[in-house]
């Protein structure tokens, strides 16, 4: 892997001397090719609470964030997704390339409890179509992250 292919997220993981696996293709293709389970691919969502505090939630791409569960997890009366135009100024990331690692500001971060089912899972490496495969334990070594039930039950 050349240095130009690394994102800041990858560099931060390496600074912590943690093992990870980079991926450089659309995650949907990887799931379709059977490289990994679709439920192993997590998306990073940024929200704002009634208090105007911001929160990050990581959930499987196959699931929908339950806003009531998310609000309860972070102690807010209610929360809603931030506007797409606010994502880059707040986090430093664009829609489709938002990673919980390396944001401009440290935000309280929560991950769906289903992440505990996998030895590793994937999430954005800070650039569209770039992702990293990492264990939950190693992600928690980089940033404080709370495990919670966050998804809609059908």
Word description of this protein:
The chain is of the alpha/beta class. It has helices at 8-15, 27-32, 67-74, 84-91, 136-142, and strands at 21-23, 42-49, 54-60, 79-81, 109-112, 121-127, 130-134, 145-148. It has a single domain (3-148), classed as Alpha-Beta Complex (YbaK protein), CATH 3.90.960.10. It is built from 5 helices and 8 strands; from the N terminus they run αβαββαβαβββαβ. It has a 5-stranded mixed β-sheet. A 3-stranded antiparallel β-sheet has the order 1-7-6. β2 (42-49) and β3 form a beta hairpin. The longest helix is centred in the N-terminal third of the chain and has 8 residues, at 8-15. The chain is globular, with a radius of gyration of 15 Å. The termini are far apart.
Which features would summarize this protein structure in a list?
154 residues; alpha/beta; 3-stranded antiparallel β-sheet; 5 helices; globular
Kindly report the spatial arrangement of strands forming the biggest sheet. Answer: 4-2-3-5-8
Unreliable stretches: none
In CATH, the homologous superfamily goes by the name YbaK/aminoacyl-tRNA synthetase-associated domain
At the first level of CATH, what is the class?
Answer: Alpha Beta
Task: Specify the overall morphology.
Answer: globular
Helix segment count?
Answer: 5
The fraction of residues in strands falls at 25-35%
Q: In total, how many domains does the architecture comprise?
A: 1
Largest sheet: 5 strands, mixed
Count of DSSP E strands?
A: 8
Order of helices and strands: HEHEEHEHEEEHE
Terminal CA distance reads 42 Å
CA-based gyration radius: 15 Å
